[in-house]
């Protein structure tokens, strides 16, 4: 591992395409690299931010410390039974690559999560989810390094405390661990989840007896029609979470807005509201301010048309929060990690 100490432009390392600078950059290819980096950090007291695909971050200023790029990759089958295959993957491995690897082998569990940008390690961090599935549905365990001691610990499903777009690593354990590998338990006899939005319809166009690969293809088609490709238009997927609110409040809101989309929540007594709908209802879909704006096809996605700074995007996000709060008395919470 080497730490490059010249100033680095982070533009190509974050999918928003924001032009922040980092003082140093390190590339981690192996678990040994992680230890070497940690020793450097302990010795020098420098700050470090770990990046996978850079698909869920917003840099709002230059980063005075080290940006460590996680390149620990590799997919390995570690166990098999009649029903399951346990697959261990390096946390820096590209997520979509893993999904494609699984569906090509007819394995089920990840097909609804096709085309989510980012790395495998970011999956459990925020319990990535789409079209009725979350990573927690196939999660088995992960290996994480304690950034203060260098010791490796195994976290099982319960330890990770997964919630909607959150986990122990995004809450109490924030900043304390580096996720090194993730083991998922995939299904040999897949049960397909087709009930979200128009997934069933899209899948039916592809096959009468669908496989996980068909579902992945349908999901890819839906995503491409709605969500901007970060390679073409800077973005970090959904900028905000869908708010989870007490049922009572939702019922009251629905009296005025019966068409408001609502989803079940894992929290008892709560329901989830579609933030994209709230933003659109406030007239902000397609809203543009300077070089950034609200995506014209999905109001939950903020986009960088080219040259927007992190601060401009954050100001836009605050504006959206204010308008939604004023209109619905609901405070949207960012899903994206803001690095300041
Ligand atoms: N909607 C609108 N206007 C919009 C956007 C959405 O009215 O501009 C409505 C839709 O018509 C639909 C509802 O809101 O009735 C939900 O929309 P959609 O199915 O597009 O999903 P979402 O709730 O906006 C979530 C995830 C996405 C994931 C999709 C599909 C969050 C924060 N986002 O978005 O994940 O792909 O569901 O499962 O939960 C991400 O996390 O980065 C991400 C893209």
Can you characterise this structure?
The chain is α+β, with helices and mostly antiparallel strands and 340 residues long. The chain has 3 domains: 2-70, Uridine Diphospho-n-acetylenolpyruvylglucosamine Reductase, domain 2 (2-Layer Sandwich), CATH 3.30.43; 75-226, 2-Layer Sandwich (Uridine Diphospho-n-acetylenolpyruvylglucosamine Reductase, domain 3), CATH 3.30.465.10; 234-339, Uridine Diphospho-n-acetylenolpyruvylglucosamine Reductase, domain 1 (Alpha-Beta Complex), CATH 3.90.78.10. Helices cover 27% and strands 28% of the residues. It contains 9 helices and 21 strands. It has helices spanning 31-44, 95-104, 122-125, 157-160, 199-206, 212-226, 247-256, 275-281, 310-328; strands spanning 3-4, 8-9, 21-28, 48-51, 57-59, 63-70, 75-80, 84-90, 129-130, 133-134, 139-146, 152-156, 177-187, 234-238, 244-246, 262-264, 270-273, 288-289, 292-294, 301-304, 337-339. Strands 1, 2, 3, 4 and 6 form a 5-stranded mixed sheet that branches. The protein has a 5-stranded antiparallel sheet with strand order 7-8-13-11-12. Strand 7 (75-80) and strand 8 (84-90) form a beta hairpin. Helix 5 crosses helix 6 (212-226). The protein is globular and about 60 Å long. The mean pLDDT is 96. Residues 130-131, 165, 196-197, 226, 237-238, 241-242, 261, 274, 276-277, 280, 285, 298-300, 335 line the site of uridine-diphosphate-2(N-acetylglucosaminyl) butyric acid.
């Amino acid at each position: 591992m080497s730490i490059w100490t010249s100033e680095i432009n982070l533009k190509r390392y974050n999918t928003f395409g924001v032009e922040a600078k980092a003082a140093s950059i390190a590339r981690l290819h192996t678990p040994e690299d992680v230890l070497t980096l940690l020793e450097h950090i302990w010795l020098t007291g420098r700050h470090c931010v770990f990046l996978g695909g850079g698909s869920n971050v917003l840099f709002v200023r230059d980063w005075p410390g080290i940006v460590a790029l996680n390149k620990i990759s590799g997919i390995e089958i570690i166990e098999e039974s009649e029903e399951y295959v346990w697959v261990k993957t390096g946390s820096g491995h590209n997520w979509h690559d893993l999904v494609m690897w699984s569906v090509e082998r007819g394995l089920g569990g990840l097909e609804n999560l096709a085309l989510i940008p980012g790395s495998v390690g970011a999956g459990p961090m925020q319990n990535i989810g789409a079209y009725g599935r979350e990573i927690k549905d196939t999660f088995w365990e992960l290996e994480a390094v304690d950034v203060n001691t260098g010791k490796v610990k195994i976290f099982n499903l319960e330890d990770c405390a997964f919630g909607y777009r959150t986990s122990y690593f995004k809450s109490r354990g924030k900043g304390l661990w580096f996720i090194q590998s993730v083991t998922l338990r995939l299904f040999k006899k897949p049960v397909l989840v087709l009930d979200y939005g128009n997934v069933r319809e899209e899948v039916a166009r592809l096959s009468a007896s669908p496989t996980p690969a068909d579902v992945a293809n349908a999901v890819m088609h839906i995503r491409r029609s709605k969500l901007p490709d970060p390679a073409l238009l800077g973005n970090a997927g959904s900028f905000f979470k869908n708010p989870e609110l007490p049922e009572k409040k939702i019922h009251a809101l629905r009296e005025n807005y019966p068409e408001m989309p609502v989803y079940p929540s894992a929290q008892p007594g709560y329901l989830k509201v579609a933030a994209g709908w709230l933003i659109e209802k406030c007239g902000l879909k397609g809203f543009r301010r300077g070089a950034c704006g609200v995506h014209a096809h999905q109001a939950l996605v903020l986009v960088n048309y080219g040259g927007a700074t992190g601060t401009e995007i954050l100001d836009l996000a605050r504006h959206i929060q204010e308008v939604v709060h004023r209109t619905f008395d609901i405070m949207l919470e960012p899903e994206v990690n803001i690095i300041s």
